[in-house]
């Protein structure tokens, strides 16, 4: 198989950083991007080209960056939409600006980077777009609504993208990690608003303590997740001889929780079937 050229967002830590190393180890080429170039410049020593890319920049700026990458490296075969952060706080404690910022990065930033590359993929009739979603794209937890909302949004918009570009030969892949040991929950990355509203304060304090305790103790191994994504994209390893699904939950917690939600949804559909199916306009006989 000819080496693929990958472009990854958010390479300064966590999955993004791991993608760079695993892609190189498979003999592929990778263009690493980060909003703070100084955090990834050391990758140049490995022969990895690095570009400054804040996914909240304007569409024009992101288009120009992608054009520069394409001019220098000829093509991109795989886009990994990885960059995101998690905002923690109740509906009442998060300001409107907090909500906007969460969606600006996790949803609109991802849209902008993907839109910048779509014409290239469409013209080549080739390209794989990977989106790192989350267990939070299935389940909204208390104090996590903004993040869950952004990941639910991603699920819907990517499903639509898949439906409108599959006939062009483009591939789309939604990866849904459970809890993995990255810097997502670190104080430098997570943006949290502890509540001092009496009705929420106790639960909020417990949640903040819980998340601090979970940081760097998550069960998921980022190396294993990234290797599976590489297998899926390259059609090897765990994907050998398999039809690659459009979305794939990864992690024991994700398997358990997603299955439970699917079963509960099926049970509701069955229990309420007659009501659910009762709403069409009666046709006159
Ligand atoms: N770890 C988990 O348990 C888990 C679970 C489900 C989903 N995910 C998803 O996995 C992806 C990667 O997160 P991670 O777990 O690897 O966390 P991480 O270690 O905190 O990495 C997040 C990366 O995103 C970058 N980033 C944030 N905002 C950005 C922006 N505006 N422009 C460009 N880069 C930006 C960060 O850059 P800076 O260094 O500059 O902040 C960092 O490189 C995210 O989409 C996250 O939602 C993670």
TrEMBL record:
Pfam families, A to Z: adh_short
Keyword annotations: NADP, Oxidoreductase
UniProt keyword Ribonucleoprotein, yes or no: no
GO molecular function, one term: oxidoreductase activity
The organism's place on the tree of life at top rank: Eukaryota
Family: Belongs to the short-chain dehydrogenases/reductases (SDR) family.
Protein known as: NAD(P)-binding protein
Organism whose genome encodes this protein: Periconia digitata
């Amino acid at each position: 198989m000819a080496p693929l050229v990958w472009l990854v967002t958010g390479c300064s830590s966590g999955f993004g950083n791991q993608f760079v190393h695993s892609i190189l180890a498979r003999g592929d080429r990778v263009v690493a991007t980060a909003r703070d170039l100084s955090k990834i410049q050391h990758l140049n020593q490995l022969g990895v080209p690095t570009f400054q890319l804040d996914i909240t920049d304007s569409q024009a700026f992101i288009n120009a960056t992608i054009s520069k990458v394409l001019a220098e490296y000829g093509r991109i075969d795989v886009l990994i939409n990885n960059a995101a952060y998690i905002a923690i706080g109740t509906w009442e404690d998060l300001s409107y600006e907090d909500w906007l910022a969460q969606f600006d990065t996790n949803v609109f930033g991802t849209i902008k980077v993907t839109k910048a590359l779509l014409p290239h993929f469409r013209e080549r009739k080739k390209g794989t777009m990977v989106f790192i979603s989350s267990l939070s794209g299935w389940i909204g937890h208390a104090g996590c609504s903004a993040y869950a909302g952004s990941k639910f949004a991603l699920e819907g918009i990517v499903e639509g993208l898949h439906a409108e570009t599959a006939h062009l030969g483009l591939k789309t892949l939604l990866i849904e990690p459970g809890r993995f040991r990255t810097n997502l929950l670190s104080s430098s990355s997570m943006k949290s608003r502890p509540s001092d509203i009496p009705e929420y304060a106790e639960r909020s304090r417990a949640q903040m303590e819980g998340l601090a305790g979970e940081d760097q103790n998550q069960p998921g191994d980022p190396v294993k997740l990234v290797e599976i994504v590489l297998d899926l994209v390259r059609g090897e390893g765990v994907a050998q001889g398999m039809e690659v699904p459009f979305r794939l939950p990864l992690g024991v917690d994700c398997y358990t929780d997603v299955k439970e939600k699917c079963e509960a949804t099926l049970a509701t559909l069955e229990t309420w079937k007659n009501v659910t199916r009762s709403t069409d306009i009666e046709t006159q006989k």
